[in-house]
UniProtKB/TrEMBL annotation:
Record's keyword annotation contains NAD: no
UniProt keywords, alphabetically: Hydrolase, Metal-binding, Zinc
Metallo-beta-lactamase domain ranges (all copies): 13-170
Protein name (record): Hydroxyacylglutathione hydrolase
Amino acid sequence: MIRNLAQGVQAFTSNVFLVEGETTALVDTGANFDIVPKIREVTDSLDTVYLTHTHPDHIGNVDAVRDAFDVETWGYDTGYNAVDNRIEDRERVQIGDDVYQAVHTPGHKNDHLCFYSQGSGICFAGDLVFANGAFGRTDLAEGDRERLVESIDTLREVVGDDLSEIHVGHGPSIVTRPQDDLELAAKAARMSQ
């Protein structure tokens, strides 16, 4: 089961996905609100935390989650204090009941990762793409529109025709025809170059 623990939070934060199953994992920790009681409403333990990237709105609650659940974090760049363990591009990780492939997708930020499970067709896309063909901003440090377009294309190749859901860093998850939103984002990012 996938739950967005940041749903309804009014503070500036990313979405925070709690994924239960064989392993109980958090995808991103959010920021500017107390995530720990929201996790405890569902579970008393976490096995791991995966970070799509290290922008403050995605990692602000890392220390609180580490302290409360004695859990380590995984991300692309261990040069950041929020990342305890490195995930390589195309490495496979267990999130809930499914095995996900980590896909390095820079452009929004150099350490950006998406996680895709071919078995379930589920993708955690961080800030690469959003609902209705929106895409991650490239006007922040490390932002690069050309690399973002390449990363969207890479994700499109990885997911192929098997995509069933995209859980994004901000806004609603895409659970109806997510392939369409991904195609729209690829076109929109190109047009904005």
